[in-house]
Write a structure and sequence with these properties.
Layout (H helix, E strand, L loop, with lengths): L6 H5 L5 H27 L3 H14 L3 H18 L6 E2 L6 E2 L2 H13 L4 H7 L5 H11 L2 H11 L1
Amino acid sequence: MSTHGTRTRYVTGCRCGLCRTANREYARERDRRHARIRDAVAAGTDLDVLVDHLEARAEHVADPARRDEIVRLLAIVESVRRGRGGVTLERGPGRTRATAAERLDDLVDLLEQGVPREDAIRRCGWTQDRSALRAAHRTGHQRAAFLLQAVAA
């Protein structure tokens, strides 16, 4: 068991004054880090802060679904860097969304790079290939519709 006055000891159940203080300091630092990220992204001034945070999270995440979500968010950041418009930043963590057309552009890029269809679709935020195909038809994205139909056959 770890020593008193650490967050690890607090997480394992100790509620002494030292451990509560360590946990409170951790929470404050985490909140400051998240606020810095939110402010940088909302201002659109420093996406490197967000990329660093996401890459650090990806290294420590064991769940493949959460890692795929982080990869998808990194792809969105890259699309913002490339100058695509239409990205909406909502309040709260994990609320970054790209338009369907941007997601389809990213999907086309991934498919043309040889990424497997299921993986490319999941990276771009869809759970099923028919959802991506419907979005391609709805937005008039002919290249994405063609690739999705060609790959599915």
